[in-house]
């Protein structure tokens, strides 16, 4: 009987980070969320936060977002109370009670209510009521808000326009002194004459009528109100946005379906630096440092500890996952170390090998104790191994440790015998030494003998300092390190440029910006750096082989994975990965050769059974394949990927009844298999 046989090929699934979805329309918000968005936080929510909130799809997500919203404004972390939130709702209640009783709107909607909710209690209030010549008015004075970009001292005026209704916020430009007086017969465009008339009735009110900022003499010279007052009012309305970095909101939207629920509201900020460096073996490694802005620990008895997990994903420009990695770090901390953590930043150093290409790197770091998470996303480029000469990225270090030459282990930012300590924010102080590290790749003998390196420092857009050194003065002609004392560098923002010169002509250039801070006693970070085995370890060939496999380059994957397997043939992981490549290349005998020794491994391995079964089946040894599939089903249960090839093997052996039984069982598990249904129908005919 001729029948169409369906042979299922294996699909080895990989976890990937999904791209950000298009904006969704979740429909009308429930009343409680609408009130929260349009009334309770309307003055303090940023445009980014508002946009993210409107894209959320479930009430659970909205509840978590609101939790994150308040957490990122909490001024005193580690206490059960959220002081910012409590104060905000106190201000709303105050505004509703005091400013909404005599007008046909709730107090929070009035100008006075809005300002009170944003700025809080004025330092002083001066009231003008019951006067014949001026409308009822109030002057609110504020100070101590300079950190928000507001003047050290400023005033705000509220008045009853035309003598009735709510008190509205006065604008020197749009209203002018004439609007404060009950009778003014002069030219309404002549602000200065109106000011001179108002000064007879209310000198204090007149003083603030042309400018709300004490010491601003501009209006008195020009006779016109100061535009600085208009800028002040706009800055007041924008003040709440300076209370928070709303980056967390975008992260919440992006990661809400990826990280666990208990983490999604607890995004913490970070700074990071990523550099691609070439190792002595010729393999490129991605070195990265992530500086966490918060580092929480738990206390058990007199000891403190925390547990951090890291998940990384490297995808190509089409979104296909090329490499994934997981790390975990546990820390036990004593009382003295805890004191350091409270004022020192925490830097996490790591690295991994990567094939040439253009990629997107995504890393999620989770603190398992505090249920906080942070993330970074960067584009990275790894050049071809045989690319022409070039300068590698510039690394700015605040410290260098010289590692003994006999140490062959790898560490992030360890270049040769030098371990570079670098901080993502690139902030130094004048008592430090600045270390510059970079690579020159593919340099030829002529350049080694004749080329020069010029180091140029720029301050304020102008050259500040430069020095030149011949390449042949350096012992290592690939890895270059130079140091500069910063004692003569005044606090400012700088750019350092390094040029490779030949005969005065610039061949290559790298540059970085950095800052020298005027602050003293800037604490250096607490660093945790991962230690990796020597370059000869087979794990690097294994990683590069899996990357090649994911790229679809089976020949290159074979080279790497055979190297890893032959160095460590007892590794189940190395053998399985190599067998996957052999399967794609159709080399079934080699699969049987390397996997048979693992067929009775404990615990049983699903992939090994499937690969062996497929290989025996492809070679026509259907009896052996049946034994393996039966054993796999007994270990792993009913599975269409086992039942369908099992049915084919029985059919090839002439056991139509057993084949029919296997395929019917497969159809029970997954009815949506039209090809299998057709085979069953043909057999029954």
Q: Would you write up a description of this structure?
A:
By secondary structure, the protein is of the alpha+beta class. The protein folds into four domains: 31-241, no CATH class; 258-387, Immunoglobulins (Immunoglobulin-like), CATH 2.60.40.10; 391-533, Macroglobulin (MG2) domain (Immunoglobulin-like, Sandwich); 538-684, Serine Threonine Protein Phosphatase 5, Tetratricopeptide repeat (Alpha Horseshoe), CATH 1.25.40. Helices cover 35% and strands 26% of the residues. It has 22 helices and 25 strands. The strands form six sheets. Strands 7, 8, 9, 11 and 12 form a five-stranded antiparallel beta sheet that branches. The protein is extended. Residues 1-26 have low confidence and may be disordered.
